Amino acid sequence: MKILLAAAASLALVAGGFGAGTAQAESAPTCSSTVQIGSTAYIKFQGQDIASVKQFKGCDKNWGYIYVWESFRQRGLHWYLLAAVNVNPGVHNVYQGDTTNVDSVKELWSTGTDTLSECTAGYGLISIVGYDHYSAFTDTRC
User: How far is CA 28 from CA 2, 9, 15, 16, 112, in A?
Assistant: First the structure.
C-alpha cells in the first residue's frame, strides 16, 4: 500500500510540474482562429521555468504570446511583460506587434503582424521588478 501511495504521489508531482506551467491560450484578442506555429520556448528565473513563449498564426497575421506560470505568480513578485513577433531573426532583431503590460498579468498577446510571408519567431520578455529582464525566442518559422 505504501509503495502504491508513493507511486501515486510521484506521478502527481511529475504531472503537476509539467502540466501546471502550460499555457491554455485559445485565440488572440482580435482573432478567433489562431494556431500555434513552431515550438514553445521557456523563460527561466533562478533555474526554474517561469513563463512560456509561443508564436501563433491566424486571421492572416502572426502573433507573439507569453504566459507566466502559476508557480511563479504565487511568489508575490511584480513584473512587466512584453510580447512580440521577431521578424527575420538575426543579429539585428526587428520586433513588430510588440505590446507591454505593467500589471503583473498572467498572459499577454502581441498585436497581429502582417508577416506571414517572412521568417518570424515569437518573442517574450518578463521584467521582474527588483531583478532583471528574462526573455526567450521560439524557433524561427518561414
Answer: 46, 36, 27, 26, 8
pTM, rounded to two decimals: 0.82
Contact 96, 113 (CB under 8 A): yes
- Are residues 63 and 85 in contact, defined by beta-carbon separation less than 8 angstroms? yes
Whose cell is 513563463? That residue is: 51
Rounded to 5°, angle at Cα 119 from 116 and 113: 40
What are 96-141's pLDDT values in tens digits?
999 999 899 999 999 999 999 999 999 999 999 999 999 999 999 9
The alpha carbons of the chain give a radius of gyration, in whole angstroms, of 17
